[in-house]
Amino acid sequence: MKIGKKIRQVAPWLLPMQRFTAGHSFNVPERNILAGYLFYMILGFLLLLLPWCQKTDVSVIDNLFTAVSAMSTTGLATVDIPGSYTMLGQCLILFLIQAGGIGYMTLSSYIILRATHSAGYTRPIINTAISRPEGMHLNDLVNNIIHFTIIFEAMGFLSLYMAFLHAGTPLPAWNAIFLSISSFCTAGISPFSDSLCSFESNVWVNSTIAILSYAGALGFIVITDIIYKLRRPGYSLTFTSKVILSVTAVMTVLGTLALMACPAMAEGPHKEGLVSNAFFQTMSAMTTVGFNNVDLSLLKVGPILVFSLIMFIGASPSGTGGGVKCTSVTAVYSFIVSQLGFRRTTTFMGRPIPSYRIESALTSIIVYGTLIFVGCVILSYTEPFQLSQLLFEATSAIGTVGLSTGITSELSGAGKVVIIVLMYIGRVGVITFGTALIGRLRAPSPTTPPSDLVA
Predict the structure, then answer these.
(1) Residue range 317-345, pLDDT digits in tens
(2) I need a labelling partner for 89 at 20 to 30 A (CA). Which of 275, 284, 435, 449 fits?
(3) How many helices (H) and strands (E) does the chain have?
(4) Distance (Å, rounded) from C-alpha 353 to C-alpha 453?
């Protein structure tokens, strides 16, 4: 009881925005989210500037880029992470990845929930930060996010540790814990200078990374749903989970086939492991984890455009991945089909999709597309690279993916600033970003029929 009372007293100071407002309530949850991520990005940046965190002299803009990339769980890097930062610096980067992956608000809410048995004043912010279908309790979801994160990352650590021990990799324990957290949080930052190219043929390592990435990207809605299914007789998976699993399977197959058809893969140095490499890179783009075990600079325009589309769609709601989310694309696809068929209602898999879900999905896709276009236009003025490479880079940044054709470290100062802004917006979400600046989105009408599709 004393602990719970103490938490209630100090809880307002757990949110950075409320520090900025002297502890008073800030009535727009989106602005709390916006300010919170900005606060921790700046804090991480300032700490990375300390000489104890750097092996070499890293520029100010590169330190800022690294902090934003880690907190946004993007994984793009302008410097060699293990070659530029000390163990202390890498620990700080890993902390930013973990905080960004599960969400700083989720962690704060979990602490408050355990102490007071209620999400309390954080509930509106969590409801804004975490989309969930009807019938799924917020308290259960917050608890499950933390518990599943610990379980998956611990299992990933054990698997990778044994793999690295078997392969004779230096610092197996450290590399295992770093990769496990980075994979589950779909951050894509590697403790190895070549990402995962050294493990191109290591099935054990690649399989572990893929499982962790899929678990993080599928989202805690799906994981919670599966647990409900196992524990409660007669429980049926929510519509959201069914959509996520279906779209994920289709995107994986189509992306793998598209990359297998790429001449650089089918005829180049990676042709021996064509299927496994094509699958891994598709998984990496779709889950937005951003690891690469092949040289992406070999890709031609066609595969680059395909991968840009996959990164644009991204992962699933309430997961650690980015992108516009597969459920948003599903809602818009269903809406287009219904309009072309002159139907009064929009349905998918036989289930109606309410108008407010479609409006949210359309807004997200249009704003994402607009920001990518604006980013490409600015980059085309500041950088000497091909438009396909700039499109790939901008999409990877706002989708918090982290894949690159190799131009990230060669960007100018202005180009790095553009990518930093896109990574930040991608992490907080375009809807949240826009609402925080403009005002609240109108809540759905009380008469609107409930839906378990999260868009």
Answers:
(1) 777 788 898 888 999 999 998 989 878 88
(2) 284
(3) 21, 2
(4) 7
- Beta strand pairing call for 347-348 and 351-352: antiparallel
Q: State residue 146's pLDDT score.
A: 83
Cα dihedral across residues 73, 78, 80, 83: positive or negative: negative
Q: Residue 347: beta bridge partners?
A: 352
Q: Which two tokens stand for residue 387?
A: 């438009």
Rounded-to-integer distance, Cα 332 and Cα 322, Å: 18
Helix (H) / strand (E) element for 348: namely strand 347-348
CA 271 from centroid of its chain's CA atoms: 30
24: left (phi over 0), alpha (psi -120 to 50) or beta: beta
pLDDT single digits (tens) 252-293: 998 898 888 877 665 655 567 788 888 999 999 999 898 988
Radius of gyration of the chain (CA): 21
**β partners of residue 352:** 347
Task: Give yes or no for a contact between 240 and 218, defined as CB atoms under 8 angstroms apart.
Answer: no
Helical H runs in 343-386? 355-382
18 contacts 25 by C-beta, under 8 angstroms = yes
Beta strands in 208-334 (DSSP E): none
Positive or negative torsion for Cα 383, 389, 395, 398: negative
Whether 301 and 387 have beta carbons less than 8 Å apart is answered as no
- Count CA within 13 A, CB hemisphere, residue 246: 12
- What DSSP letter does each residue of 63-76 carry, written as one string? HHHHHHHHHTT---
pTM: 0.85
For residue 291, the Cα-to-chain-centroid distance in whole angstroms is 13
d(CA 369, CA 44): 29
In sequence order, the 6+-apart residues with CB closer than 8 A to the CB of 232 are none
Packed helices 239-260 and 301-313: angle between N→C axes, nearest 10 degrees: 170
DSSP 8-state assignment for residue 86:
-
At 347 the three-state DSSP class reads strand
Report the chain's terminal Cα–Cα distance, integer Å: 39
Give dist(CA 79, CA 58) in Å, integer.
8
Q: Do the Cβ atoms of 116 and 7 come closer than 8 Å?
A: yes
